[in-house]
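Feature request, filed as a ticket because there's no other form

It would be nice if the structure record came with a short human-readable summary line next to the tokens. Right now we just get the raw output. Example of a typical job, pasted below so the devs can see what we mean:
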Amino acid sequence: MCHSCGTLIPIIIMGRPPTKPKELRDGFYIEIRNIGSHTGIKIRRDNKEQMLSAIKEYEKTKDVIVLGEFRKGKMVNKAK
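Raw output as currently delivered:
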């Protein structure tokens, strides 16, 4: 609350950011990076055919790293 006019001021609570990585959903994952970059984003597809289609689409302009299939947050098989 503001002392002079009595209006409410939002309080921003700062804290430690979460350190536990998010559990990955079931599906096939690839990581897309800008060429020469060290960080990227993970993209999930429901089946292998969709993942292969996404790889073809992104490999023209980005670096693509195939992470493989995940179930219950764990890697089932590593991509070859």
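Something like this underneath would help us a lot:
Residues 27-77 form one domain.
The mean pLDDT is 86.
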